[in-house]
Amino acid sequence: MLATQLQFLGHAAFRLTSPEGRVILIDPWFTNNPFVPAHLWQPERADLVLITHGHDDHFDPELPSLLARTGARCLAQPQVRFYLYEQGVPTTQFEPLNKGGSVDVLNVRVTMTLAFHGAHIDLPNGTAGFPHEGVGFILTFSDGAVVYAAGDTALFGDMRLLADLYHPTVALLPIGDRYTMGPREAAHAARLLRTPHVVPFHYGTYPALTGTPEQLRAHLAPADGVRVHALQAGDTLDLGALR
């Protein structure tokens, strides 16, 4: 059986492949996305799609088409899920979930966590609707890999509870600053989470997102025992090799 694989698609989008070969997309934004290599825009397969919030750099307007084409199950922030219902995505394609809940799907245990990030959905008529708070996800795989996908969020103290309960082996943390945690806060998040590995995202793509992996490393001490993996768009990380 293969180890869990993590691919950084670009900006805030990730692709995970489980030991059973299931493909999981987190916040896929492909349509006209300059930060994701064009050859990755049309994934041939997706078995599960996770959506943390409805901002357009995390939530592809063509997501209903992707779900219809692939038949993927979907786990989405509740207001985003309601919006997708209105767009005609069948309710049977969803795994309804809310913050604090967990579900077993496709040999993966998925928990929806808190995130502190005000969000909305840009509607087709040019207005903003469906205001909501973002969420994060913890994914526990059959090979022991535990991935915390924080989504866009501020630092919050209850990350230490996530460490106590779930023991994440890898944390996907935003570091851009201004709209999310910056490098200083993300370093403290890594300490609260007691995770040995961090993959930063949501930085370096827009001028306002000024945080860098180098700054994140500078805020971490050797005693923290945290390794920062600054992946380029398209790079893959073998999570089995990290343990």
UniProtKB/TrEMBL annotation:
Record-linked InterPro entries: Metallo-B-lactamas, RibonucZ/Hydroxyglut_hydro, UPF0173, UPF0173_UPF0282_UlaG_hydrolase
Is Chaperone one of the keywords? no
Which UniProt keywords are listed? Hydrolase
Any one Gene Ontology molecular-function term assigned to this protein's record: hydrolase activity
Looking up Gene3D superfamilies in the UniProt record yields: Ribonuclease Z/Hydroxyacylglutathione hydrolase-like (3.60.15.10)
- Which residue intervals define the domain Metallo-beta-lactamase in the entry? 10-202
Similarity comment: family membership? Belongs to the UPF0173 family.
Report the NCBIfam families cross-referenced here.
PRK00685.1
* Entry protein name: UPF0173 metal-dependent hydrolase DLM85_13120
Origin species: Hymenobacter edaphi
